[in-house]
Amino acid sequence: MKPYIKISLFVVLFIALFGILYGLMLFFKQHSDLSKAKPDYIVTAVTLQKEFEDNEPAASAKYIKKILEVSGAIASVTQADSSNLNISLKSGNDLSSVICTFASAAPSKFKPGDEITIRGECSGFLMDVLLNNCAIVPKRK
Question: What's the total number of domains in the chain?
């Protein structure tokens, strides 16, 4: 076999191995624990929803991929699947809310109408403001 073919084959195999290892690293990556993270913004659910409704591009630039601490009244608590729980916060608009998704089972002691503070990463606005990888923030004394 000619030397340039051997070198080319080695380079292709090296790139393929690197790609496989990088893919496995991303697949097994753990979510960060936001219960101890410092929030970038502290807002109410009503204020957050209103900012997105009034000027979505500006609110998106401000909040997306940021850690938010959002407080408000619970509109609903739903089990998304066997391991995910969604808590919707009232936003003052009957057609939309702030949806907070918990990757692990969150405490089920909450019911509609309860006041709660949740910390999560904002992922966007699609009629509802979406927060992912959420954690309950304990009440301050």
Answer: 2
